TrEMBL record, chain A:
This is ABC transporter domain-containing protein. Belongs to the ABC transporter superfamily. Residues 4-239 form the ABC transporter domain. Keywords: ATP-binding, Nucleotide-binding, Transport. GO terms for molecular function: ABC-type amino acid transporter activity; ATP binding; ATP hydrolysis activity.
UniProtKB/TrEMBL annotation, chain B:
CDD domains: TM_PBP2 (cd06261). It is a multi-pass membrane protein. One of its GO terms (biological process) is amino acid transport. It is found in: Cell membrane. Belongs to the binding-protein-dependent transport system permease family. The lineage of its organism: Bacteria, Bacillati, Bacillota, Bacilli, Lactobacillales. NCBIfam families: HEQRo_perm_3TM. It comes from Pediococcus argentinicus. Residues 16-204 form the ABC transmembrane type-1 domain. InterPro entries: AA_ABC_transptr_permease_3TM (IPR010065), ArtM/GltK/GlnP/TcyL/YhdX-like (IPR043429), MetI-like (IPR000515), MetI-like_sf (IPR035906). It comes from the Bacteria. The keyword Cell membrane applies. Keywords: Amino-acid transport, Cell membrane, Membrane, Transmembrane, Transmembrane helix, Transport. This is ABC transmembrane type-1 domain-containing protein. One of its GO terms (molecular function) is transmembrane transporter activity.
Amino acid sequence: MSMIEFQDVEKYYGDFHALKDINLKIEAGETVVLIGPSGSGKSTLIRTVNGLERINSGKLIVNGRDIADKKTDMNKTRKNVGMVFQHFNLYNNKTVLENIMLAPRLVLGRDEAENKKLAMELLEKVGLADKAESMPAMLSGGQAQRIAIARSLAMQPKCILFDEPTSALDPEMIDDVLNVMKDIARDSSMTMLVVTHEMGFAREVGDRVIFMADGQILEDDTKEKFFDGEPTNERARQFLSKIIKH
Amino acid sequence: MINIISNHWQTLLYGLGQTLLCSILALFFSLVIGSLFAIMEVLPNKIAHTIGRAYVELFRNIPLLVVTMFFYIVIPKFFFQISGFAAGTIGLTIYTSAFIAETVRAGIQSVDTGQMEGSRANGMTYWQAMRYIVLPQAFKIVIPPLGNQFINLVKNSSVLAFVAGFDLMYEGNTIASTTFDTINSYLVVGVLYLIITMPLSYYMRYLEKKSNRGVN
């Protein structure tokens, strides 16, 4: 069964047609990279998957539930779908450790000792065990983003959505975050949907590359076809040639 | 001044006590009621939002004295007996809670929307996100303006004097009219109000500093 399936999805903001006839299947365990110029609907698309944006028509099945259906309890879906944001969105009033432990405690009712053990393991994994008692305001962007990834992982989701996770970071911090993401992509059966401009990441660990423009999916290729062959779509080719040059 | 204090200290002390009691009750309840209406105002639910908005607009735009008089005169006439102290305290609570609702609402809305989105994406319900993430940050932001509201509340409690609430202002009026020493009577009353409001003012400032230390 697919982890995420879009069927004829349309999304409007007022008169603005943000997503046009989206049809897309993402299988469990896949790492899918979503690229395209700004304003093309990448972020909107990824935010519909956990219901931060509602779609106007079509079907959107996530982890076996149609989340376009108003009766679907989004909180249940979100337990299994993590998200990492461009601006981290760490809880400013909580320590790093509490950032990671809060949702598992409240949502999953995880035992306190086990919760702490798991949180510390995740901090080790992202290389920030010494920051456990820090407040988010004291972290650099790269550190904050790695904590945000650890916070998502603590819920042990089946899928994580990454919405431009490195776009707000200083260049020298990007690699730290990408390395953590690559580990996740390699290590587990985690499904990853990643909006990014980091072509190196897409090439190294991506399974598929999707190119969007003007709210439409114009290209949906294996990474081999996208990078080593040629995208079929003219706009995708132009975009690729520009982004590779830099 | 010494004469007024030495001859009337018992009356003054009683008035001070009533003012303090009224202020504490009104402060507690207006904070609770004001916060509830603030939350109603930011809810996605249109009906809740409208009720919250209507409450705030109604009570912050009517003079405190009119609200108080309503409880002092209208309620006993049609419903049940109510003391001046109770009428004044209820009026003050309702009036102040409208301002506190405005203050807290502004605080909630100034918390970055990413905090709510982060919480929801992490699996929390709307109410868990409010309770653990958004509201604590909102209250921290509004400590200084809330301090203003609290100080205004203590001073506004002098409305009790109009409805025989036997507060500091009421007793001051009585002493002034019996001794004819108006200047000294009101000077003493002024100093006694300062004794309540100054520590409150310093305490709010202390809270503000303390909450800033936690983050930066």
